[in-house]
Amino acid sequence: MSVHTSKGRRLARAFYDLDGTLVDINLVHATFFFAVNLGAWHSRVAYAARLLLRLPALFFAERADRHLLNVELYSLYRGISRDRLAALGEEYCDRMLVARLYPQAREILEGNRRAGLEPVLVSGSPDFVVEAFARRLGIADFAANRLVFRGQRATGRVHEPLMAASAKASWCAEYAARRKIDLANCWAYADSYYDLPFLAAVGHPVAVNPDRRLEAVARSRQWPVLRFVRAPAARSSLWPQRGAADPAGRASASGRED
Predict the structure, then answer these.
(1) Is the pLDDT of residue 115 over 60?
(2) Most exposed of 16, 43, 86, 251 (fewest Cβ within 10 Å)?
(3) Is 154 within the bounds of a domain?
């Protein structure tokens, strides 16, 4: 887990999941992007072959265990150099994440800032992606997964604790305790049922484009539910290119509550 913190004095935060919440993209999509953009064709073929062999495990993990999904996906990075991953992280951020950022998510971020809620990213994505995205949005604090390297090559393992499920909630609690922040005054935004502990850790949870199970919980607990839609003009591609307001968004342009 990678942690980057600032010395801000604000006593409330808005914690944001990344994939599926701020952008309409997920960690599996990022893995495919890296597969087809590694550089040399023999590297792409080898990486794609490993990905295909892992598909049954990924299919099971996506439905049964988000921690297992992360373990399976990060194992595919084995052998890729640190420098190449950093470069691909920047490229992925520009070509995919920024292009697929929900307009409503950007409005929520800025509206929360004006309301005194400093943004914090809490994501299971790799740090070389999250750091690049946070920099572009002017977000100082984030938590993300960090690969283990040996001789500047990724081993396919991740430093503990792996940022998934309840680990996100634990990180937020530790982050808040160090800064004497009351989580009851904080907000959190996420899209997946696996993020339920993360949402339940704060006083103001918001379900964004929730899956069926999370939506059921949100409705039963009377949490706000927002639907974000990507702008039609936003375009992005996996394939290599040549040359290469109100915190909950209620009754505002920041989002629409169902």
Answers:
(1) yes
(2) 251
(3) yes
